[in-house]
Amino acid sequence: MGLHYISEVPSADEIKELFPMSEELTKIKQARDEEIRKVFTGESKKFLAIIGPCSADNEEAVVDYTTRLSKVQEKVKDKLILIPRIYTNKPRTNGSGYKGMLHQPNPEEKPNFIEGLKAIRKMHIDSIKESGLTAADEMLYSDNWGYMSDILSYVAIGARSVENQSHRLIASGIDVPVGMKNPTSGDYAVMMNSCIAGQSKHTFMTGGWEVKSDGNPLTHCILRGSLNRHGVSVPNYHYEDLIRLHEAYEEFSTLKNPAVIVDANHNNSGKKWDQQPRIVKEILHSMRHSDDVAALVKGVMVESYIEDGNQSVGGGCYGKSITDPCLGWEKSERLLLEMAELL
After folding, report:
1. What three-state secondary structure class fits 51?
2. Can you tell me the distance from the alpha carbon of 342 to that of 95, in angstroms, rounded to the nearest whole number?
3. Could you give the 3-state DSSP secondary structure of residue 272?
4. What structural domains and CATH numbers belong to the chain?
5. Which string of DSSP letters, residue by residue, matches 39-83?
6. E strands present in 35-124
7. 133 three-class SS
């Protein structure tokens, strides 16, 4: 038998009971959710910056980072809403390597999903306590949402998951914005169809239950670049790409709240992390040249941590990514302040 059952994972209710959200933190989340919702509906002209580590591998460093971010949020609150990236699930291109704190609460030890579930929930809650900022996470597994439904203010569906039926159906039952990334092929139609699925009502099976979803009107696109047939990065953050997405939304006219978040790293930067500030500024420049683009682009994603670059697992440098390279704190803070000036 090729599949070996190791241990039964606690239910979402059991994990939530171990690490509950207090009434105070719940109110913070409700206020943040409403503020972010208004950006996607067009009621607010504020701009979103979903910013943080490629993978959240260490609670101390992550909470340190989000606490620094909260101080910047106060400075830019009239223009920007900062959403920390606390990504605890790391999809890998070929399935190997560190897959995030959910898998390995300690990157140097063996996988342990039960301890991983406890660790990621505790980290998210501790971050809200210290920073007052509710976060974004990626839904690598469609079962994840139940464990995080009362914590997250934003959910991303990755380029390798966006065509998966389970992810699309779960997205339709989530009550915060869900971003659907373009697939690695770059096909806009795949991304748009995923948004249609996320915005529609469904009946499906999950977690041993037959369930119904109401549809999520805040399901939207994320442009993250693509790969051509030679494996070379092809960016899709340029003005022409944003206009093309605007036209795609006109074609897919049943979609509510047309919106895009532009990922400044991954194939948009060719994983050249230091190019992210330049890319973000080009996006803001494009918004100034077209009302259609300005209305469509709701924010950017930036991979950022305390130290520039990345290191191998066990590298020992505090606040430095152990997956994709990230923009360091000083450059990140400067970028956020410049963004507020340019908006």
Report:
1. strand
2. 40
3. coil
4. 12-115+132-342 (3.20.20.70)
5. HHHTS---EEEEEE-SS---HHHHHHHHHHHHHHHHHHTTTEEEE
6. 47-52, 80-84
7. coil
In angstroms, how far is CA 323 from the centroid of its own chain? 16
User: Which are the contacts of 269, defined by CB distance < 8 A and separation ≥ 6?
Assistant: 225, 233, 235, 275, 276, 279
Cα–Cα distances (Å) from 251 to 34, 68, 83, 165, in that order, read 29, 42, 30, 22
Angle between helices 276-288 and 239-251 (to 10 degrees): 60
Report strand pairing: 209-213 vs 202-206: antiparallel
Point out which residues pair with 180 in neighbouring strands: 157, 221
Number of CB atoms found within 10 A of residue 304's CB: 29
Separation of alpha carbons 1 and 235, rounded Å: 43
CA 148 to chain centroid = 13
User: Six-digit token pair at 220?
Assistant: 């939207």
Phi, psi for 85 (deg, rounded to 5): -80, 110
- The region that residue 235 occupies, defined by phi over 0 for left and psi between -120 and 50 for alpha, beta otherwise, is beta
| Residue 65 φ/ψ region, left for φ over 0, alpha for ψ in the -120 to 50 degree band, beta for the rest | alpha
CA distance to 10, 176, 241, per residue, from 249 (Å): 41, 21, 12
> How many Cβ atoms from other residues are within 10 Å of residue 88's Cβ?
27
229-266 tens-digit pLDDT: 999 999 999 999 999 999 999 999 999 999 999 999 99
Mean pLDDT score, 282-309? 97
Kindly report whether the global pTM for this prediction surpasses the value 0.70: yes
Report residue 260 as tokens: 């895009």
Q: 82 burial class (0-12, 13-18, 19+ CB within 10 angstroms)? A: buried
